[in-house]
Each structure stands twice: as structure tokens, then as C-alpha cells.
Design brief:
The chain is mainly α. It is built from 23 helices and no strands.
Length: 539
Amino acid sequence: RSWRGKVKAMRKLWCLVKVDFRAMLAALNFGRSKKGRAGGIGTLVLLTVLPLYLSGVYSFLLASMLAEVGIVEMVLPLMALMACVMSLMFTLFAASGLVFGGKDSDIVLALPVPAFTVMLSKILALYLENLVFCGLWMLPTGAAYLVYAGLGAGQAAGFCVRLLAAALFLPLLPSVLALLGGWVIAYFSGRMKHKSLVGTVLSIVLTGAVLVGSLQINALAAALLQNIEGVRRTLHTWLLPLGLLLDGLVGSWGALLGFLLISLAPFLALVWGMSTQYKRILSSLASHVTRSDYRLREVKAGGRFAALFKKECGRYFGTTIYLLNTGIGAVMLLGFSVYVLFVRGQAALLVAQMGGVQAVAPMLAAVVCLMQATVNPACVSISLEGRTLWILKEAPVPPRELFGAKALVNVLVSDVPATLSVLLLWFGLGLSAPDALALLALCVCMGLFIPVAGLAVNLWLPRLDCENDTIVVKQSASSMIGIFGGMLVVGLGALLWAVGGKLLGFVWFSLAAAAVLLAGAALGWHWLCGSGARILQKL
């Protein structure tokens, strides 16, 4: 009987994991239509190429540097730490919505399934996402180690087996940290009056902690060349999992077993401990939402566009996952500009070493526009309407006003920080007036192009049936194509500058690029008001 009960429990867990995994695939907009298959396949290709490319560049660069001083094996824990940090940054915001924000959680908990099984199935879906990223990230790292370590055939085969085992358990570490962060956000926001504000503040604090931790990776890489013994002691004290991973990958099966156990045990213990309070947390969140939905208050009269714009602002600044995932680029850009202003002397010296202001201006343009490309709430704003989209479609509101309200929010959260950043960089780095004004024109036009393109992408690849906002914002095909597509536009501009843009000079090249972006925004807006409006009516 005990054996049969365990088999039934495993079957239930497997069924729930399959449901969550299918939901993740559905978020990529796979479907029977050619458009759905193209969007899903394109997104998967993008998600595959990104970690392979980034890890390949960093792994071979670090391995070549470390091989010169005879410590090439240190590339393994360093890149594993980078994989954990980046996975945590990608899934920190998703954990709260996936584990504690599912709209079907009350239905699933009503079934004859233990809360531990339900929570484990959801966190395993988060683990699968981290597994794909960490697995792809560690492949180039392993290749770089094999190239520079000079292992024999037998040693190389053993290393590959150990690397495969380590890659399966490495994602458990960021999954545990993401689950803790998601629980903190859900726990406190469910007990506070201003839920969205509390969730946003907590998410910003956790994000800041992750960014500070990521900066320590650079310090650790520098310490490798200065104090290798100190780094080894660190890897066997407060970075013990990475120390065991290093010893295990270079040949110690006992250390590898220790790494597997030290990764799995906290994962299971945390899931079991939180599952005892799972129903209480979900009930608290549901009751808070119910109280906030039914409030009698006076509503001021206003125009249609003002009402739509206010609604969009309320959703954007009131949805933590939406605000942070699409607004973190603006925050980082402002933070960088303020930092440059405070260290003007050091920045001026660095600019002089890099060839002067004329050489730095194109780099600044690439950085500012790249950060603007990540600020794209418009690419998911239609999908976030969900099953209530029919209300806007039946309301006496022209589609151009609906598109305009959504685009205006995007323009404000993109162009306002970019404009302030350009002004701060103007004074902080001593840019000339023509360079600064050309950069400003480029950034403003980029901020106009991004929301129009984002709305077009969202109309092409909508997701109106997701169980929570996290899937729409972080895992849908429109969000990934919208954000990474903007980055590709910046990359194309950088390529054109490298090929022949220097002949025009920075000012004229920036003005020409601004004119192209402005023309693209105008054509895109014309398409939205025509074909886009007809597509909206069919959704």
C-alpha cells in the first residue's frame, strides 16, 4: 500500500509538471498556424543563441587569460556563478507570479493533491526554465576548459559526464533564491494595504541585492590574478557549493556528490517548509484582492483618451512584474548617468584615454538606445488585457485612442529618463553641444519607434489566455521579440556605424538614424490605425 501510494503521488506530480510545462510552451505562442509556429520557433532560437553567445565570449576570454597563469580550472566556478546570477535575475520576478500568483491555484488545491505536490510542481517549472539557461550557459564553459586544459581522451570523457551531472543540479541554487524572493514579495504584499507599492519596493530591493552581488563577480575575477589562494579559501567557505563544484569537475567524485546533495537538500527543505503555509498565503492574497475590487468612491468625469491613459498608467505602475521587467533599463540608465555626474574627474580622464569625446559619443549612443530598447511595455500591453479585452472593443473608443494611450505610457517611461540621462551625460562628460543635441534627437526618436513596433508585435503575437501576468510579461513571444528585437535594431545601427557611418560623422549619422526611426514610427502608426485596428477587432 505504501509503495502504491508513492506511485500515485508521483503520477499526480508528473501530471501537474506537464501542465505547467505546457503552459510555458503555450506562452511562446506555439500553435497550428504558421504565425504561431514562426513566433514560437523564433523565440526559442533567440533564447538558445543568447546564452550560448554570451557564455562563449566570456568563457574563452577568461579561459585564455587564466591559462596563462596556470589556473584555467577557475573558469568553471566563475562561469557557474555567473550562470546562477543571471538565472536569478531572469526568474526573480517570475517566481512570485508563477508560484503564488496562479489563477488556477485554488482549483488545483481543491483537488486530492497535497499542497507540497502542487508547490513542487510549480517550482519545478521554474527549475526547468533555469535548467535550459544554465545548461546552455555551461556548454561553452566546458568547451573552453577542454580547449585550454589539454586533457586526454579518457579525462575529457569523465569531465563531460561530471559536467552533465553538475548542470542538472546547478539550476537548483538560483531556483531556491528566486523562490525565497518570490515568497517575501507575496508574503508582505498580501498583508499590506498598498499591495502593489510594497511588492514594487521589495522587488527593487531584491534586484539591487542581485546587482550588488553581480558586481562582486568582477571583483572575484580580478582577485583570481592577485590572490588565488584567498579565492580558493573563499570557494571553500561561504561559496562552498562552487568550491565543491570545482573539485568535482576536475576529478573528485566525492566532491561532486557533495555538490549534488548541498544543492538538492535546501531545495526540498524550502519547498516542504513553504508548502505548510501555501494555502494560507494564497488565501491572504485572494482576500486582499477581493477587498480592493469593491470600493465605493466618487469618479471624476473626463475625456476618453484621459481615461484610457489613466488606466494604462494605473496598470503599469500598479503591476510589479510589469513595471520592473520593462522599466529596469530606465532605472539603470539614470543610475549610470548620475554616477558619471558625480565622478566627472575620473570620467574625463577615462574619456581622454579612450580617444576623446568624439570616440566616446557613439558608445554612449549605443548604451542609451540599448537601455531604451528594454523599456517596451507596449509589446505586452494588449496581451495584459486578457479576457477583458472585449470591454475595450465594445466601448465607444476608436482604436487609435487605445493605441495612443498605450504608446504614450511607453514614450513617457522611455523618453523622459533618456532625456535626463543625455543632459546629465552632457555635463558629466563634457560633450559638445552638437553631439549632445544629436544624441538627444536619436534617443527621442528611438523612444517613439519602440512603442509603435511593440504594439505591432503584440497584435501579431497576442496571448490573451495566460493564467497570470508573469507569463505574459516574461515568457510570451511578443515580450521577447519586442525587447530583443529592439536590441537588434541597435545592433544594426552599430554595424552601419562601423561599416561607413564614421564618414558622415557622429552628428549627421545620429540625425540620419533619428530620421529613419521617426519615419518607421510614422509608418508603423499608420499601419496600426488601419490594419492594426482590423486585427484588434478580430482578437
